[in-house]
C-alpha cells in the first residue's frame, strides 16, 4: 500500500498537500520531490510523512524524488515549521525561502564545475606545430596540457588572456573539450591567522560571559558604543568555536557590510568565509549553502535569509547591528531574521550574541526582564575618543542645497587638514519636489499618493514607491507656468559640494550609484583608500563601515522622524544619528559631528546629544510604557489593497466585526500612510494584545477567518506579524 506524504509546495496557500508514494526508497522529511500540481509539475519539500496507508480518497502520486538524503535536517525543518506558524505564512513559501534558487528549482544538489581540458587531437596539434599562426589557441592548449586534470573558468580568467574565443575555436576543431566535476569546497585560508588583539576589561568581561555557558543557549546583548570593539569580541568568540570544531553563523543587515566583514574575519581567523547574499550568483550561493550544510564551511556570513542556512556543527550565532530594519523582510514572507535567530539558537542549544551601538527597544526590554544578558562596552577601543557633537540651528543661517554656512566652513577646515568628510542625507535624487510657481501644483505619481523626485543625471522624474518614471517638466501641466525645485537629495548635495570644493575628490554612495553588482564594495574600497576626500551618502553609508580617515560627519536633516505618526520613527532617527556619527574619529584622529536641525531644542534631540543613546532609550521606553506600544504590547497588521478602495475597506470591516464578536481587539480599518500605491487603495487593521501568546491565539482565529471569508475578486491581503512600521 502506498504511504501518504505531506508536501510543502511554493504556492500562496496556507496549507500543505498530500500525495501518495509508491516507490521503494524511503522518504524523509526535508527531501525535495517533484509532484503534479494542477496542469504542471512543481518542486516541493517533504513536510511530514505519516507512513500510513492511503485513504479511500484518490491522491496523486509523487513523480520523482530529487534527493537521496534530506537537504534540511530535523532542526532546520523545525525552524521552518515555527516560522510558518508564527508569521502565519504559507508553508511552501517559507520552505522556498530557505533554499537557494538552484535547489528551489530542482537542480542537482551536487554542484558541478565546468572544466576545460586538452584532447588527444590537441596534443597532436601542439606536437606538430599546427597552431603557430593561432598564438592564443596555442597558448591555451599549452596551458591545458600543463593541467591534464582540467582547469576551471576562474583559472583561465586569471592565467590566459583572451581564453574564451580561443576555447570556442579549439573546441570547434576538436582540440579541447569540457567536462564536469563535482565542486569541492575548500575553506582553508592560504595565509595564517593573525594574532588576536588585546582586550580591554569590558571586552574581556563580555567575551568571558559569552563563553561562560560552555556552549549552552543564552542570549547576550553586546551593547557597545560605536568603535568600542564589538567585532573583536565576535572574532575571539569565533576562534573558540573553530578550536572546538564548531560552526559560527554571522548575520549582518546590509550587503555592503558583508565583504568588509568577511575580509577582516579571513585575515584574523585563518579560514575562508562562506558568504550568502544577493550580489552572489545562484551557483555561488548554492555552494556556500551546501558547504555549511555539510560542515565544510566553519564560518558563514550572510544577510537576512542566511538565518535559514543549515549547519552541520552549530556552535555560535551572531547578529550584528541587531536593531537594523533590514533584518526584517518587508514584503511577502515578512519574517525578522534576528527573532528567528534567537529561536533557532534556543532550538540548537547554542549561545547567540546580538550586537549594536543602538539596541532596539524590544531587545533592551528583554535585557531588562533578564531574558537576555546585557553586556556593555562604554569606551572606544584603543583609546579613541568619542566625537564632539554640535547642533546647527537652521533657523539662524542661510543654506546652499541644504548645507549651512557653518557646516561648509567646518568642512573646509577638515579638508584642508587632509582629513575625510562624510555628509549624510537619507534622501536620494536631486530634488524631492517639483512645484508650480503660480498654482502650487506638485508633480505627482499617477499611481501613488507620492511626489515625484527629480533625478537630474538621468533626466527623469521618478516615484520612489512604485518605480514609475516620467519625463522632466519645465512648465506646470495645469497652468503652464514655470516650475521650481524644492528640497534636496544626495544628487543635489553632490553637485553643490563639487562646486564648493572642486579640488577635493567626491564620492556619492546611494542606491542610484550602487545598482551594479559589486559596485557597493568598489565604492567602499575607494572610500577607504584615501583618494576620496568627501563622501555623500544615504543610510547605506552609515551602517558599521570602518572609515578611519573620516573626522567630520555632517547630518543635513535631523528633523525627519520627530513628528511622524509612526511610533517607532523617533527611535529610528536616534539610531541613525548615533550610527552615522559613529563614523567620525574612529582611529587616533579626533572626530566632530554637526547635526543640522530646524528644532535644535527638541527634547528628544537634546537628551540624545547631552546624555547619549541609553538615556534616550530609557526616556522612550517610559513613553512606550504609558502608551502601551511595543515592547509593552504585541501587534500584527492585516493589510488589504484593491483598485476599488471600497472593496478593500469592506473586506477589512467584515473581518473587524467578526473579530470584535470573538472578543479580539482590532483597531481600524484605517487608510495606510500612503493610501494609494501602484494604483491600489490600501487599508489596514491593527491587532494589539498584551502578551505574545494572546496575539498568536488571535492570529490563529484570524487566519481561520481569512480562509472562510475570502475577499471579493481584486482585493489582495497580507499579514505582518511584529511589524516595524505600523502606519
Structure notes:
It is a single chain. The chain has 21 helices and 31 strands. The chain is of the alpha/beta class and 727 residues long. The strands form 8 sheets. The protein has a 7-stranded parallel β-sheet with strand order 10-11-9-12-13-8-14, with helices on both faces. Strands 15-27-26-18-25-24 form a 6-stranded parallel β-sheet, sandwiched between helices. Strand 20 (453-455) and strand 21 form a beta hairpin. The two termini are 54 Å apart.
Q: Helices, strands, pairings?
A:
Elements: E1 3-9, E2 17-21, E3 32-37, E4 40-53, E5 64-65, H1 74-86, H2 91-97, H3 101-104, E6 112-118, H4 120-127, H5 135-146, H6 153-159, H7 163-172, E7 176-182, H8 201-212, E8 218-224, H9 230-243, E9 247-251, H10 257-269, E10 274-276, H11 282-294, E11 299-302, E12 314-320, H12 337-348, E13 351-356, H13 361-368, E14 373-377, E15 388-393, E16 399-400, E17 403-404, H14 405-416, E18 420-424, E19 433-436, E20 453-455, E21 460-462, E22 469-470, E23 483-486, H15 490-500, E24 506-509, H16 519-528, E25 534-537, E26 550-555, H17 569-581, E27 592-597, H18 603-611, H19 613-627, E28 634-642, H20 645-661, E29 666-677, E30 680-689, H21 692-708, E31 716-721
Parallel strand pairs: 8-13, 8-14, 9-11, 9-12, 10-11, 12-13, 15-27, 18-25, 18-26, 24-25, 26-27
Antiparallel strand pairs: 1-2, 1-4, 3-4, 3-5, 6-7, 16-17, 19-23, 20-21, 21-22, 28-30, 28-31, 29-30
